[in-house]
Amino acid sequence: KGRKALTVAQDGSGEFKTIQAALDALQTGQVVTVLDRGPYRERLEVEEMPADTGLVASDAILELPDYVHSYGQHYKGHHLINVDGFRISGFTFVFPKPMHELSIGFQTHRGGGLVLGSHHS
Length: 121
What we know:
10 strands, globular, four-stranded mixed beta sheet, mainly beta, 1 helix
């Protein structure tokens, strides 16, 4: 409560149609609120997550479309770097079959204060 919310909805009723676009616009102290269930078929990547932010939904599906080659033989899915006080809640994550034994579906670096919440349906 009391935070500026950036809204996401695939039908255009939010400020953004993709979660990634909203995360790219996110500022310290704000939250991205997903208004619909999706499914959202996108790979999230943030190099510098603003402090004290969040990504919330009441019951949304975030489906990783594919893994991308990272380094060596590693393949990555969602990739969040410099996460400081970031909260994710209300999502069901769906991952494709790993491309390689070194496939990583959800990866964070320097994840100080990352909180993954669950939802109940």
